[in-house]
Amino acid sequence: MVTIPRRLDTEDAQLALERIQDLLKKHALVENLVRRQEEGDEQADIVEGLLRRQHEVELEHTLNQLHPADIAFILESLPSEQRRLIWSLVNAKYDGDILLEVDDWVREDLISSMNREDLLAATEDLDADELADLAPDLPADIVAEVQKGLTNEERAQLLEAMGYPEGTVGAIMDFEMVRVREDVSLEVVLRYLRRLEELPDHTDQIFVVDRQDRLQGVLSISQLLVNDPDTNVKDVMKTDYLSLKPNDDDTDAASAFERYDLVSAPVVNRQNRLIGRVTIADMVDVIREDSQEQDLSRAGLHEEDIFAPVVKAIKNRSPWLLINLCTASTAAVIASQFEGTVSHIVILAFLMSIVAGIGGNSGNQTMTMVIRALAVGRITSKNFTSLLKREFIVTILVGFIGTIVAAGFSWAISGSFKIALVMATAMLCNMLIGAMLGVLIPIFRDKFGKDPAIGSSVLLTFVTDSLGFFIFLGLASIFLL
């Protein structure tokens, strides 16, 4: 049985990364120094080999004292060339666990550097649900070869898990769980558990099934321990429990875990047969991935290796920046139509950016709240109208406070009451537009099956900038000239 080192906390993991980076610098320095020696110098070649091996041994020793999750963190924090060097020095017994821990973009890089024998060795000891996680990134012939070494039950489990789309409960469920019958005593259950080498991770409840594996209830470990051993399972099991379907969205499942403080939950099919379970560890991964995707989506980005080639980074980042450039150009064109107004009252050129900026900020505040509410399923067709009304009321109240400040500022630098009034009116109107769009844009994107976070801020900025300039300069043209 492989003994896995303890996990490090965040600070210690960062210190471990810095230690590895220092060793890599020394390794690179030695190689550069030796390369300066004349080619064909036998003595230099011997020295190079000894020094390289010395640093590799030190790196190996440092790495293999770390938990696979911490090694995964280090691999994600290194450029591709250094990442592959570190990967080659990691103890092979940790390869499978590390591949499960690293992000997808690092996993693809590592797998591409491994030969067939290494891939087979890394996957041979993994469970069916873990193999299903890796299968999309593995060559098809490796997956086929791995299946040959599985039992019929494991092979069926693997094919079942691989059959569910990414983002569903079925794709992340595992098959290690404890099940018992309802007509046995707690003493029998305890004896059965003692025969096991260990309980599956995060076992807080035992699943009670009939002879056809249909789920009848759940027996919590606490109930098992505190009740009389002669009591039957049926008398203490819970029949009021949360179960999930394999096609349920994993984000919805994560929300249920958060809402009900769950540690594990059974997964059943249409016939109520128990086919797997999901645990809090799976849900934490789902929540983390969704959070990362939302953070990237707000900037119009997709997940990418931070050390990816420049060309790949440009392809990822340029589309929404070009769209933003086009929208900004549109706003500039609108402003140019009021050149005469601005040339007569130059102070307007300084004030109009405030109107556009405040409208965009107001809308972004609303949009952030709405995207978060959509993610946890709190917005429905029945509360949409009341949500829109609420945002209008909040924006008007906040806007009045802001317009007083903005009007005072405008009057102070321009000395004109009319400019201050135009400034206040335009700012309040643009804030209301921003609030309305902050609700509508993400909701409509979600309704049409698009990620509400992707590009929403770009669309919002385009409208608040364009309309902000138009409203402010239009009012100025009407009332100030």
TrEMBL record:
Subcellular localization: Cell membrane; Membrane
Subunit structure and binding partners: Homodimer.
Membrane topology qualifier: Multi-pass membrane protein
Protein role: Acts as a magnesium transporter.
Name of the protein: Magnesium transporter MgtE
Main location group: membrane
Keyword Transferase (UniProt): no
Gene giving rise to this polypeptide: mgtE
Keywords, comma-separated and alphabetical: CBS domain, Cell membrane, Magnesium, Membrane, Metal-binding, Transmembrane, Transmembrane helix, Transport
Species per Swiss-Prot/TrEMBL record: Advenella mandrilli
Domain CBS: 173-236, 237-296
Family stated for the protein in its record: Belongs to the SLC41A transporter family.
CDD domains attached to this UniProt entry: CBS_pair_Mg_transporter
UniProt cross-references to Gene3D superfamilies, sorted A to Z: CBS-domain, MgtE N-terminal domain-like, SLC41 divalent cation transporters, integral membrane domain
Annotated TM spans: 344-362, 392-413, 419-444, 456-480
InterPro entries assigned: CBS_dom (IPR000644), CBS_dom_sf (IPR046342), Mg_transptr_MgtE_intracell_dom (IPR006668), MgtE_N_sf (IPR038076), MgtE_transporter (IPR006669), SLC41_membr_dom (IPR006667), SLC41_membr_dom_sf (IPR036739)
Domain of life: Bacteria
